[in-house]
Amino acid sequence: MKALFSLFFLFLALSSFSQNQSKLKVIETGIETFKMTDSGEPKSIKTWTVSPLTKIDIYEAGGFLSNHNVVTFYTDKETFEVKVSLKKPIYDFIFLYKGDTCYTRVHFNQVPDYLDTLRKGKKYNLTEKSELPKFTYQDMNHPELVSLRRKYNLDSIAGTASEIQQMINLMHWVHNTIQHDGQHEIPKIKNADNMIQACKDTSRGLNCRGLAITLNECYLAMGFKSRYVTCMPRELEFEDCHVINMVYSNYLKKWIYLDPTNNAYIMDEKGTLLSIEEVRQRMIEKKLLILNPEANWNNLEATDPKFYLTFYMAKNLYRIQCPVSSEYNYETPAQNKTVEYIELLPLNALNSVPQKKESSKSDTGSKFIQYVTYDPVRFWAKP
């Protein structure tokens, strides 16, 4: 049935093209692959490849910043701008490449309202009694953390300012030292020293997980209790999630949200730094959230507050996961090693069972244990 529907819609699309072919805009290109941009995804670097053999090449323009998108194609012959919206969601045209006709369609596809999805996932179970391990934090005097602190002069980087400013200074340093790079896998040896060295010649960077692990170990080396936090959407299968940090402030007596990928932290209307839990709750309650003005991606472009808060993090704060033990080199594979995670779920989550799941890798004998909880009090417990 699905195949029949696909053929039906393809037939309609082809009919539309055949009926309007004489009216279609024709864009010449002498190159097969060229740059394109989408106003709906300002941080994405995109390319478009023309394909004469494909009956219709369709680009889906996702709308989440507004009810319209501007998609721009940059061929070697000309620059062509396509505007699509809720009212006019389809624009058909032709690329002419070496005499071949390439039928192309830009389709405006409104993305889900992730804030609405998050609000539907506001309820937890505060009376849950399932068994969970307690979160632990490695002591700053552990030899590997001492070595990390001394090798990179973390005391000097943190400085002598307030506790909060020291935390921010360390985040700035990681953000400025290692570029965000979503094109490379995280190195096999997953500790701060190895990952900093792997990126030293600037030929590569780290994805958000690598950056958060690096910052987490820097915080531990300075005596701050911290975790790296995997933030995920409601869907069980997804292309994108985000990993950030939470570090405990003795001054504020709470956790603080810090994101080394975007050099970001979030404040309330009084300028007080917020925790991940508070950010999520304020999104649900439609309360004001303020992104720090210096938030940026790779020091190349400012992080758009609307995109970051109302789309990206609203999507990724539905499910939240942390390692049980916050320690140096925790995720590096080793013989017979056990790695544990706890995931916090709202009551209407899709993956509600089982509450404990074990898996292992046959090559190393490493064991992975995943716990599920619906109790935010235990998940966000103070160190």
Report on the structure:
The protein has 383 residues and is of the alpha+beta class. It has two domains: 110 residues, no CATH class; 265 residues. It contains ten helices and 21 strands. The strands form six sheets. A seven-stranded mixed β-sheet has the order 12-11-10-17-19-21-20. The protein has a four-stranded mixed β-sheet with strand order 1-7-8-4, with no helix packed on it. Helix 3 crosses helix 7, helix 5 crosses helix 7 and helix 6 packs across helix 7. The longest helix is centred in the first third of the chain and has 19 residues. It is globular, with a radius of gyration of 24 Å. The N terminus is likely disordered.
Number of strands: 21
Overall tally of domains? 2
Note the beta-strand portion.
25-35%
| Helical segment count | 10
Instruction: Give the integer mean of the pLDDT values.
Output: 90
Helix share of residues?
Answer: 25-40%
How far is it from the N-terminal to the C-terminal residue, by CA?
54 Å
Short description:
The protein is an alpha+beta fold and 383 residues long. Helix content is 26%, strand content 29%. The model is unreliable at 1-14 (pLDDT under 50).
What would the keywords be for this entry?
2 domains, alpha+beta, 4-stranded mixed beta sheet, disordered N terminus, single chain, 7-stranded mixed beta sheet
What order do the helices and strands come in, and which of them pair?
Layout: H1 2-20, E1 25-29, E2 33-38, E3 46-49, E4 57-63, E5 68-74, E6 79-85, E7 90-97, E8 100-110, H2 114-120, E9 136-137, H3 143-151, H4 154-158, H5 163-177, H6 192-198, H7 208-221, E10 226-232, E11 242-249, E12 254-258, E13 266-267, H8 276-284, E14 290-291, E15 296-297, E16 301-302, H9 305-316, E17 319-323, E18 325-326, E19 338-344, E20 356-360, E21 367-373, H10 376-379
Parallel strand pairs: 1-7, 4-8, 9-18, 19-21
Antiparallel strand pairs: 2-3, 2-5, 5-6, 7-8, 10-11, 10-17, 11-12, 13-14, 15-16, 17-19, 20-21
